[in-house]
Design the sequence.
């Protein structure tokens, strides 16, 4: 005989998933009530585990475990997902779908031809591989970086962001700045390696490739979301840039441990911008100390 309570739970879950507003409200509550844990604890613990893995301090089942990595990244992306969820409509879905397709295509071309990022190979598993070459989870890593750069630029530029001629190149430049932090840290950890590199093991051509990818991604985000709607949502959603906070903490720490001081300085610049726009205002009740 079926358990009535179990049946009731399944029915509640079914109704929840079929009600978009309820899903958005639940996600908003989850992130709001756990901001410090998601944006600070997860990246700090993640940095410790990644550094321990790179230095051979963790046993094989745990060292660079791809599912732990993917789970941690997915949790840190929740503020961005929760912030953007109410703005997702058909147009946004199509534009983001095109961005996902572009992300796979440009990475596959890069991994198989060396263009536009330079010759590189993945050393650490990031989960199942598409065509045995690039991670299926790639959009989870790339697209949020561009979205974070776009959102932060809207705040930094203010009224100047009204002009697409200003907005697109500034966002693209910030995306490249983000990679100036990310790639040196990832190379130091051993996630991937380049055939040759002049900037902490990363070749100059890699950043030329990121300019191309950043411009394409920024244009597609421009198509996906109206600027005014994003600004209004940022103003009402205090946690919307918490994923950028996580990025600064995780990759700033990794680069600092390995003495990559230019990336650390860039990460510090992002931290200053986030602080200036009150993006470190975690509720006291959410802090464990």
Sequence:
């Amino acid at each position: 005989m079926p358990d009535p309570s179990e049946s009731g739970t399944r029915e509640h879950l079914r109704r929840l998933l079929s009600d978009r507003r309820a899903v958005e409200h639940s996600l908003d509550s989850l992130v709001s009530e756990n901001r410090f844990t998601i944006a600070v604890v997860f990246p700090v613990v993640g940095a410790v585990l990644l550094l321990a893995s790179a230095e051979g301090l963790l046993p094989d089942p745990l060292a660079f475990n791809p599912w732990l990595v993917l789970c941690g990244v997915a949790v840190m992306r929740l503020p961005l997902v929760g912030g953007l969820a109410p703005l997702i409509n058909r147009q946004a879905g199509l534009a983001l779908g095109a961005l996902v397709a572009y992300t796979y295509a440009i990475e596959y071309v890069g991994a198989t031809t060396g263009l536009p990022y330079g010759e590189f190979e993945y050393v650490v598993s990031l989960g199942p591989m598409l065509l045995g070459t690039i991670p299926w989870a790639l959009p989870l890593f790339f697209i949020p970086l561009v979205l974070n750069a776009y959102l932060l630029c809207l705040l930094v530029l203010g009224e100047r962001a009204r002009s697409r001629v200003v907005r697109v190149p500034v966002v693209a430049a910030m995306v490249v700045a983000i990679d100036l932090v990310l790639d040196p840290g990832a190379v130091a950890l051993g996630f991937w390696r380049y055939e040759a590199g002049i900037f902490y093991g990363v070749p100059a051509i890699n950043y030329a490739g990121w300019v191309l990818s950043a411009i394409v991604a920024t244009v597609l985000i421009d198509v996906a979301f109206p600027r005014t709607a994003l600004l209004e949502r940022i103003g009402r959603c205090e946690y919307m840039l918490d994923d950028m906070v996580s990025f600064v903490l995780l990759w700033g720490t990794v680069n600092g441990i390995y003495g990559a001081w230019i990336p650390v300085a860039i990460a510090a610049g992002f931290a200053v911008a986030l602080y200036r726009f009150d993006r470190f205002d975690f509720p006291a009740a959410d802090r464990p100390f």
